[in-house]
Description:
By secondary structure, this protein is an all-beta fold. It contains no helices and eleven strands. Strands 2, 4, 5, 6, 9, 10 and 11 form a seven-stranded mixed beta sheet that branches. A four-stranded antiparallel beta sheet has the order 1-3-8-7, with no helix packed on it. The termini are far apart.
Amino acid sequence: QVQLVESGGGSVQAGGSLRLSCVYSGNTGLYRYMGWFRQAPGKEREGVAGTHLSFGGTWYDDSVKGRFTISRDNTKNTVYLQMNSLKPEDTAMYYCAAGRSVGLALQAANYNYWGQGTQVTVSS
């Protein structure tokens, strides 16, 4: 079992920034892939960014490249998503997820554990 708790969401104006945090606990020894996903009302859940707790490395969806940065602090058991230059289309519920052998593909179906989500709202 892996537990994930997100925080840091909120309401900002377009062009603003937010930093999301995901605190992980439990059996992360097997589940080393960490991803951020988002889901807007009426839309499918989509991958935003991913990383690996051991070897590092980061990968992003094209829609957020250059604006979002995923990072991790293993001493704090936390994965972050720094979001800059936010746009109204970034508005969604953001979820942290842990997976075992997902590779670099940000496909929600491949991830095993999910947090409860944190809402991000960007106004124009």
